[in-house]
Amino acid sequence: MSKITIRDGKKERDLKEITFEDLLKYHSAGALMALSVGFRVLEAGLKELFGDNPPERGEISILSGHAGPGFRDAFEYVTRAVTRGVYTVDVNYPKAQYDPHRAQSYAFVISSTNGSAVEVSLKDGFLPLEFYDYLAKGRAGILAEKEKDDFYTLVIELCEQARSLSQDELLFVERLS
Questions:
Q1: Torsions phi, psi of 46, nearest 5?
Q2: pLDDT value of position 10
Q3: Which among 21, 29, 39, 77 is most buried, taking Cβ atoms within 10 Å?
């Protein structure tokens, strides 16, 4: 089982091991694809920035190109960036703009207080066009009952795919500084 280890204090007892299942308990059954991708983004970004050394929560800030609750909850649960006021959303972030219906980036910048930063973005093609179409219909309030069921099935499938694909199949990771 994959886990993220993070420090929430200076002592050994302050190490927290967080799994995707922990995020599920926090977030519930909403935006599961985003929750799953958010977990993978954190795994990749924190590994790139800190190697095998668990970072201190207070060292991390997040710029999210996506405004949705699944990504927000993944980042908040692991880093407390929202609570600490170091979580920023910019849906116009120029990378990974895949949604044909609106500005919404699937790129995220994870920064450390030491000045280092990494950009992690979802690879184009992971989310099929029908995913964006369902979202647009849902926002417009015109998603039929069968479409709601189909969309939920698709979200579950994408959640599982995000968890099972290799990092290289799912994400681009680029060191910024």
A1: -70, -35
A2: 73
A3: 39
Q: Is pLDDT at 29 greater than 80 in this prediction?
A: no
* Whole-angstrom distance, CA of residue 132 vs CA of residue 97: 12
Which domain covers residue 142, as residue numbers?
A: 3-175
Question: What predicted TM-score, i.e. pTM, was given to this entire model?
Answer: 0.96
Work out whether the CA dihedral 143, 104, 115, 174 comes out positive or negative. positive
- Which residues face 88 on adjacent strands? 63
Are residues 144 and 22 in contact, defined by beta-carbon separation less than 8 angstroms? Answer: no
Q: Which amino acid is located at 160 in the chain?
A: E
- Both tokens of residue 57? 């929560």
The whole-number pLDDT of residue 158 equals 98
pLDDT(166) > 80? yes
DSSP element (H, E) containing 75 = helix 69-79
Counting the structural domains of the chain, the total is 1
